[in-house]
Design a protein that fits this description.
- This protein is an alpha/beta fold and about 250 residues long.
- It contains 9 helices and 10 strands.
- It has a 5-stranded mixed sheet with strand order 2-1-3-4-8, with helices on both faces. Strands 5-6-7 form a 3-stranded parallel sheet. A two-stranded antiparallel ribbon has the order 9-10.
- Helix 6 runs antiparallel to helix 7.
- The N and C termini lie far apart (about 45 Å).
């Protein structure tokens, strides 16, 4: 579904994609507003759902957009159930923001299949989130020690490090925006400290650009009409329009 020249597009995005969306929006005159939500809301999906729904309501009221595009994917099901009242709602068929950086959900699936222990780093992730590595370890240890004492801090850090044993690769993905030599070196430093392999994937900006401008084809995007809400599809499409259970055929006696 392409935009028309009269479209007023508002963007609501996780702060992880802040730099990329700001850069691409410069060439999108239809984009009338960009709203950032803090990184990490997906850790509590119900919280993400509440914050995102409130942002949709607020953006509709204050900016009167024709369409609202979401810089999110399914995101631990935190986007399930959201809807707009008057605007079209557009979201990429993606599990999370890494697909938006790689440019294709099938590329993402192939990479994870071949490298199942991957922890992703990116310009936005490194800016808004303290990723696994020595700096994260020392910061958390100091916080835990201050709150709970050294013995309990050591136990909590052992639990955290056990969680990281599921990973063996730090992969930095970028679209050439916000990348610095220092950021790349930092990712390598984290991988070295964790004794992980380190990789870099140069992403494809097409999906993110088309999210802002269209065309919103059904293969890559889900387009929700006013009042329609998002649901998980459970297949390669990832997301779908929520279809209420049909109770019209239920008889009563």
């Amino acid at each position: 579904m392409p935009q028309d020249v009269q479209s007023r597009v508002a963007v609501i995005t996780c702060a992880v994609l802040e730099m990329e969306i700001a850069e691409f929006a410069k060439s999108c005159p239809n984009v009338v507003h960009i709203e950032l939500l803090e990184q990490g809301l997906h850790n509590e999906p119900g919280n993400l759902r509440t914050e995102l729904q409130n942002a949709i309501i607020r953006v509709e009221r204050e900016h009167n957009p024709t369409a609202i595009v979401l810089g999110y994917g399914l995101c631990s099901r935190g986007t399930v159930g959201v809807s707009a009242v008057n605007a079209t709602l557009v979201i990429a068929r993606a599990h999370d923001c890494i697909t938006l950086l790689l440019g294709d959900r099938r590329r993402y699936a192939d990479y994870v299949k071949n490298n199942p222990g991957t922890y992703w780093y990116s310009p936005g992730w490194n800016k808004h989130h303290l990723p696994p590595g020595q700096e994260r370890y020392e910061k958390l240890y100091a916080e835990y020690a201050e709150k709970y004492g050294d013995d309990n801090a050591q136990f909590l850090m052992e639990s955290e490090q056990h969680w990281f044993q599921a990973y063996d690769r730090a992969t930095y993905v970028d679209l050439g925006i916000g990348v610095t030599d220092e950021d790349l070196a930092y990712t390598q430093k984290c991988a070295d400290w964790l004794k992980w392999k380190c990789d870099r994937e140069v992403g494809d900006p097409t999906l993110l650009k088309d999210l802002l401008t269209g065309p919103w084809d059904d293969d890559r995007f889900l387009v929700l009409g006013p009042g329609e809400s998002l649901a998980m599809s459970g297949d390669d499409n990832i997301i779908q329009i929520h279809v209420p259970k049909d109770v019209s055929n239920h008889s009563t006696v």
